[in-house]
Amino acid sequence: MRKAFLFVGIFVTFLGWANAQTKVDALLNELDRIIADRPTYIEVKEDKIQGIRQKLKAAQISASETYLINNDLFQEYKVYRFDSALHYVYANLQLSEAAQNSTWIEETKLNLSSILTSTGMYKESIENLKSIDTETLHNSLMERYYVESKLVYEGLHQYALDNKFGPKYLVKAKAYQDSLLSILDPGSNDYLLEKGLIYLQEGDLQKAQETYQDLCFNRLEPATSIYAKATATLASIYAEKGEKDLQKRYLIESAMTDIQAVVKENLSLTSLAVELYQEEEIERANRYIEYALADANFYNARQRKVEISKIYPIINDAYQLKEKKQKDTLRFYLGFITAISVLLIVALVAIYFQMQKLSRARQNLHELNQALQQVNHRLNESNQKLNESNEKLKEANFIKEEYIGHFLNQCSVYIDKLESYQKVVRKKVMTKELNALIKMTESKSFLESELKEFYSNFDRAFLRLYPNFVEEFNSLLGDGQQILPKKGELLTTELRIFALIRLGISDSYKIAHFLRYSVNTIYNYRAQIKNKSTVERDHFENHVMSIGAFYNDN
């Protein structure tokens, strides 16, 4: 009994793992689709920015309106392009000082610290924050001041990575965090974001998880930069808990959100690439780290480029090594496929000569029958020879069918391998130095031509065995439901399915594999034809199996 419970437990655990892995794979595929659509998201972002910039070209525009427009542009560029965001911050700083508007100056300096911190310019950000007179700040800007101060010292703590300065920076960051919490509404999203981070820092992973799950599922707006940061933090929580699948899931969610929100100043795609590299999914990891590096170059912040450049060579070197191994494997399989092709040609030639022998045997039998009619006194001897010849003919026909079956099977295997070859080559060599090979593998004309010829050979071989199959099959269907091949066709897909059934292949999986359809498609075809039949559904395929004895047309 204990062994039975143990087996059930292992089985349930395996099912849970398989289900989680399936979800992660589906999310990775969705991430790939969203990455492919990046130009669309960027175009929308650029159109929005262009619309805001057009407002600056108005003939008469006040300083206040200019300030607000510059601020809007800063917000759009903040996580999109560093140098442009910095440009509009400095433009507003100059405008604020000229207008001697202290609120504008303070808000703009906070914006400046925000962009400086995000790019690793911690010293400059601290000096800028020190220039702000906190005594005159109203509540909303005071919140911003505590946030920016906390972030800059958190960044310094992560950057220091030592036991001398790091703890000091962490103490300062914690002090600003406490000050921030003291003025935030405990029911606000900003409060919960900070509280969740505190739980994480204190090692209370369960409360941290519950807090960020509530934020991600119930409070925050999807497809926003704050949602991306929240899901990235949730991924960090699951990483601390050792739940790798959930860590990857929320890293993927964060990366997808960054792309949809056109956030170029991001970390999730880089972190996901590192995780995939550690799991030896080298190709995908290399692809993602290249996208992350491209984003960092576009964002144009030196610190972010330096961070990614440390990781990129490691993943890329592993990818290049794997690529080399795959090329070696590809060369081996190309040689193997060539050998199989030669053997297939030899088999086809052998079948051709065998069929010639069978044709001559049938001709000899015909001549023998004529001789038997002319020589009655040798009837017994001739009948004996005729029986022997018929036995040989049956054996020959059996051999013929066996060769046809072998031929069809070999053709299917050959096409499978060619298809696999095209897919592998297409998938594995998508690099700039292999453009010629990529173009070759992108073309499906060769495979489609082989499939067309393969099915044409099958149709001719089948109708040679059962020449009246189409007429007898249609006789099982109701009026107006007959299935007739188009001009130039021998069999339609529906007829081909039931031709395979007539040959004894009734397994939908095998039929789907043979005809390159999904199993569901084969089930649907079979059900649709049975609905059109004039006989009972349950006995329809038995009637198909009884269609036509073997017809000899030679």
Can you tell me about this structure?
The protein is an all-alpha fold and 554 residues long. The protein folds into 3 domains: 16-137 and 189-316, Alpha Horseshoe (Serine Threonine Protein Phosphatase 5, Tetratricopeptide repeat), CATH 1.25.40; 317-442; 444-554, no CATH class. Helices cover 79% and strands 0% of the residues. Helix 13 (268-278) packs antiparallel against helix 14. It is elongated and about 135 Å long. It starts with a helix and ends in a 9-residue tail after the last helix. The relative contact order is 0.04.
**Portion in helices:** over 70%
Described by the principal axes of the CA atoms, the overall outline is: elongated
Distance between the termini: 68 Å
How many separate structural domains? 3
Q: What gyration radius follows from the Cα positions, in whole Å? A: 37 Å
Low-confidence stretches: 1-18
Main sheet specs: none
Please identify which CATH superfamily of the largest domain we are dealing with. Tetratricopeptide repeat domain
CATH architecture of the largest domain: Alpha Horseshoe
Q: Write the H/E string, N to C.
A: HHHHHHHHHHHHHHHHHHHHHHH
Overall pLDDT score: 83
Strand share of the residues? under 5%
- Using the coordinates above, name the CATH class of the largest domain: Mainly Alpha
The total strand number stands at 0
How many helices?
23
* CATH topology term of the largest domain: Serine Threonine Protein Phosphatase 5, Tetratricopeptide repeat
Structural class: mainly alpha
